[in-house]
Amino acid sequence: MNHQTKTYSPLTLVTLVAATGGFLFGYDTAVINGANQYLKAHFHLDAMQEGLAGASAILGCIPGAMCAGFLSDRFGRRKVLFLCAILYALSGVLSAIPRTFMEFLAARFISGLGIGASSMIIPVYIAELSPAAKRGRLGSLFQLGIVLGIFLTLFLNARIQGLGDEAWNAAQGWRWMLGAEVAPAVLLLALLFLVPESPRWLLGVGRDEEARRILESVGGPVHASQEMAAVRAVLGAEEGRFSELFHARFRRPLVIAVLLMAFSQFSGINAIMYYSTKIFATAGVGVKDAFMSSVIVGLVNVVFTFVAIAFVDRAGRRALLLIGLTIQVAALGTVGWMFHAGYSGVPLLLAILAFIGAFSMALGPISWVLCSEIFPTRVRGRAMSLATFTIWTSCYLVAQTFPMLNDNPAIGPALTFWVYGACSLAGLIFVFTTVPETKGRSLEEIEHSWTA
User: Fold this and answer.
1) Whole domain around residue 150: which residue ranges?
2) Residue 201 within any structural domain of the chain
3) Is residue 214 part of a domain?
4) Counted domains in the chain
């Protein structure tokens, strides 16, 4: 009985950390969706400033992601996650009380530092602790946390929006939407006191006995010995420098990581997550119905993430990506056509939901899983920093430009969504021609495969 508890408990706690970190990521992604129209009224924002309000957290994500790789390789994954939890809590307080638009942007920038860093560290942390047979499912729990955060935040936004009229929401409602982030931030901080450090990071800095104890608690003595031998074999051959990422043998995983992250954003997912209320309002849906349509978007996001969790270690990463991207292309083309033809209501909602479902079961979670798997242990943190820098830079461009594209009579929502569909098609071609299958292989086996 003791052995079963020991084997199960660390992974349980680690997955709770992953889910809570993902929840905070999702919360910050979606909270601006409900708040932005009231921020626009409260601070008298133009279209460019509205885009900046939506993208302000992302401006913090970029340096957060870039610094986190070095910091986590130097000080450990767990210590940097403590810092992320503190940044989330601080931002939640400051975002609820700004007196000026610049104060609001500063508070959101602090949140972005936490999002950028945690979005880089958590997938790596999970990958380095998980047995190979479970790594896809456990890695997908980070994405599950994200989509649960998005759904519950959209639901919370809708409930808060219903507590008062337009004037109350413009003055106070958005403050409650943003300030509620403090609660999950405190939960993450508490959980981090209970979880171990990454055993692969510990081996990399010479703390072998600590690493052995953690690996034994996850999979038993045989698992610990095998993992330690495999990690030592590759650590001895690595330089452990950022420049190693650009070595010829790692060029392919670097290209895969960077392009997958870019395609995941240029498909337009966060145009919908940040602005779904605005999208439905543009299509002629009333404000209350637009809020509830956004909640349905969040619910579909959650449901189809469970599809990824169920099949990522069975069907594999590559198969799910090919299926999901094919559906994405068709759905985004349909959304663009509906805007062009003037359709709205249920048909438009169903087309958007098809895109959300396809993204949530494939490109959304699997991009994070693959990027956390394909790099060598010693530079995995730095490599994920580069991949995460890519996703947040791409995300910023989408969030900043969508209001301007959507409101521009010469472009409008139809052409905007067709562009997102073209990017998804490019992603489909890239996965078909370049991305290998990694299911069921240890991190060290994946590393060796690049030189085979």
Assistant:
1) 2-195+236-449
2) no
3) no
4) 1
* 368 in any annotated domain: yes
CATH number of the domain within which 75 lies: 1.20.1250.20
Digit-coded pLDDT (tens) for 78-104: 999 999 999 999 999 999 999 999 999
- Three-class HEC string of the chain: CHHHHHHHHHHHHHHHHHHHHHHHHHHHHHHHHHHHHHHHHHHCCCHHHHHHHHHHHHHHHHHHHHHHHHHHHHHCHHHHHHHHHHHHHHHHHHHCCCCCHHHHHHHHHHHHHHHHHHHHHHHHHHHHHCCHHHHHHHHHHHHHHHHHHHHHHHHHHHHHHCCCCHHHHHHHHHHHHHHCCHHHHHHHHHHHCCCCCCHHHHHHCCCHHHHHHHHHHHHHHHHHHHHHHHHHHHHCCCCCCHHHHHCHHHHHHHHHHHHHHHHHHHCCHHHHHHHHHHHHHHCCCCHHHHHHHHHHHHHHHHHHHHHHHHHCCCCCHHHHHHHHHHHHHHHHHHHHHHHHHCCCCHHHHHHHHHHHHHHHHCHHHHHHHHHHHCCCHHHHHHHHHHHHHHHHHHHHHHHHHHHHHHHCCCCHHHHHHHHHHHHHHHHHHHHHHHCCCCCCCCHHHHHHHCCC
Residue 422 lies in a domain: yes
Q: Is it the case that residue 126 has pLDDT exceeding 70? A: yes
Encode pLDDT of 197-239 as tens digits.
Answer: 988 889 888 888 998 988 888 878 887 888 888 777 766 554 4
